[in-house]
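Researcher: Predict the fold of RNA polymerase sigma-70 factor (ECF subfamily).
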Amino acid sequence: MEEHLLVKMAKRQDKKAMEKLLQSNYSILKGYLLKMTLNPTLADDLTQETMLKAVLNISKYEHRGKFSTWLITIGTNLHRDQLRKNKRLVYSEEHMELVDHHNIEEEFIKKIEYGNLMKVLKEIPEEKRVVLILKHYYDYSYLEIAEILDCPIGTIRSRLHYAIKVLQKTMKGGEDIE
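Model: Structure tokens for RNA polymerase sigma-70 factor (ECF subfamily) follow.
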């Protein structure tokens, strides 16, 4: 069944439609939150909290994009709230091993060894890392990312440029790249 029909049914309190929407988008959301947090336990918690918020607020969903985009927006906002509350999350090396390596499309990212990729992602500031993940792991457009993060497209491009520079520098073994 098409997503927009499931959404309509879910808005009318159809529990099976809502369940199907959540099930079909669970792995996308969970994978995103794993890459964002680099912490499987936190990603699990945020995934569950996002799903709960989606169920409670399905009537507020406006069909402007994919349902997964709405879930990612909710998850991103929950993660930001978590960061504000805790000021700073500590990522351990042990958690980085558990992060799933998923659908990386850019050549320069493919060239970085898996373990090194997780270490590099850890070094990229959160506001820049989220743009890199949404663009190159999930193939969102600049406009979609701007809507998810509620900031101008120019800011999105700048953040992505910075993140790519960090990745390129890592690939070159720490050499400065112009």
